[in-house]
Amino acid sequence: MVKTVFDAKTGALLGAHMIGAEVTEMIQGFAIARTLETTEAELIHTVFPHPTVSETMHESVLAAYGRALHI
């Protein structure tokens, strides 16, 4: 399970919640995005490899804005 939290006014990435197998391998993606002050628009347009577990990160970003592809 991955949940991504953004500032509603600025689109700034505030943080993420991750639960499950292999999340310790994926959290660095959000850590880098946070350090670089990435916005939701930038993450929405980022290509995540398919098929991989990291796609859940992209889906959580899309879901935060009602645009999830794989529900």
Describe what you observe in this structure.
With 71 residues, this protein is α+β, with helices and mostly antiparallel strands. It has one domain (2-64): 2-Layer Sandwich (Enolase-like, domain 1), CATH 3.30.390. It is built from three helices and two strands. It has a two-stranded antiparallel ribbon. The longest helix is centred in the middle third of the chain and has 13 residues, at 23-35. The model has no long low-confidence stretch (mean pLDDT 90).
Per DSSP, the total helix count is 3
Low-confidence stretches: none
The helix content, as a percent range, equals 25-40%
CATH level 4 superfamily? FAD/NAD-linked reductase, C-terminal dimerisation domain
Short description:
This protein has 71 residues and is α+β, with helices and mostly antiparallel strands.
What is the strand and helix layout of this fold?
Elements: E1 2-6, E2 13-18, H1 23-35, H2 40-44, H3 55-64
Antiparallel strand pairs: 1-2
What characteristics describe this protein?
3 helices, Enolase-like, domain 1, two-stranded antiparallel ribbon, alpha+beta, about 70 residues, single chain
